[in-house]
Amino acid sequence: MHPELGGYAPSDIRVVAAWDVDARKVGQDVAEAIFAKPNCTAMFCDEVRHTGAKVRMGRVLDGVADHMADYPQDRTFLLGDDAEPTKDEVVRALRETHAHVLMNYRPVGSQAATEFYAECALEAGVAFVNIPVFIASNPAWAARFKAAGVPIIGDDIKAQLGATIVHRVLTNLFRKRGVKLERTYQLNTGGNTDFLNMLNRTRLASKKESKTEAVQSVAETRLDDENIHVGPSDYVAWQNDNKICFLRMQGQMFGGVPMNLELRLSVEDSPNSAGVAIDMIRCAKLAQDRGLAGAILPAAVWFCKHPPEQMADDEAYEAVEAFIAGA
């Protein structure tokens, strides 16, 4: 969304360290690891220049759902054989590589794994960009980042043009046009490891809450739980990284006359997220440059489904643009 952001271009971002738990990636330069299975996204660049950063074995903890071992190896994880790192080893790597920002893309439901890397970011003093569970929007964690003088942006990335932002915009449109929204659902299917991981419904508590609250927060009147369903729905292997959203909204127009809207959205999941991630990383660096600490609200409300505070999208856009401009 920002070819130039606060003086930084996307090309100014350099990968200096990386962690994963898949044996096909551990030990590989990041430029090679991104093409390894189970990655299955559309490729728009056939060759990537070596980064000099080799993927290190990461901490597993709750980062891999148990059921994923039941799927073919080209669809799921082969755990690396290297010893898992201690917090001190991750902190040392962040310091030795002079990292500025740590991006956490652990799978949905990885609470313990995310907290491990959040602790590493705090100790190393590097800005933290968080995706899978609630850290930035958790007051206790936000206070710790504030006290440590470390910026954090999160939680749960809002894709460039994904199901959540479309659902929010349409919900806001209903409100502004005086259409009473009575019930709605958002069903999503995909074939990447994100969707495979989410077949374990016990890992979905924060994801379902963040997606649902993102819609509820812009509705004229909050819907009862039985009248709104927002969340991942199923894993379809042949879809690979293609994510399909089925959206339905039912309501009443003038005179109580019923209406409904149905929408089908098809996107490539990873690049839909990647461009936003690039903006989040640069906003985290900008906050670091300015000596800011704790949750960076203007970036969170625009880029994330579950920021520390919810804000209408028009207001969030103005807030992040003002932040980038230094206002």
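The above is record 1. Record 2 follows with the same two-line structure.
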Amino acid sequence: MMKKCPYCKIEVGGNPDKCPLCQSRLSGEGGETHFPQLKALKVRSFIYKLQMLIVLSIVIVGLGFDFLHKVRIPEFPKLHWSLILAMWLLAFEFFIMRQFRPDTGSARKVTLILIVMLIMLLVTAKYFEFMGLVVNWVVPIVLAAMMTTNFVLAMIDRHGNTMAYLLSGFVFGLVPCCIHFIAEGKMSITWLVCTMVGLILLVGAVIFRGRSVVGEIQRRFNL
């Protein structure tokens, strides 16, 4: 037995509810399902949609209280705090979406997530006036962690897909150190540690993955 579409005049195998062409409800009795029911994927999809609804609801409520009801933080009466909240929550949704993409490697996820987080931290610190703490402590620590993580991933990667993110991690890690030193005329202990970690890992990458490093540079710069 097969179900039939009254509009497309086709027979559909298995036991679907709707026509695959016009999405109309099928008539008749269906047969055995051709493909297994992936209940785990359905549960994950429902949870993902549910948390997305919750996040977007919080964003809408925050914007409403901030712009329409004029609810402000007492210490920052002119700050639209809902925009900062929306920025973090939408970034959280972006991170969740990256986790659902099977073609996204671990090194790419680590690099992208940490860079986006640093940018959001700098924006938040600008408006909440704790820029010194973020620049002098949080940024160098996060950059050192990013370089270390990408180095470990590059050492265990057998396909060579991580080397590009390792080298780009050195750029994102060491260039800010140089800029900070030029701007301040000195280097704090945290930025010094970040610089040394980056240089040590760069030397380690050349020692353990010398050919991969050279090959990646040649491929990126067409040498």
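The helical segments are 39-68, 81-99, 106-128, 131-156, 163-184, 189-208, 210-221.
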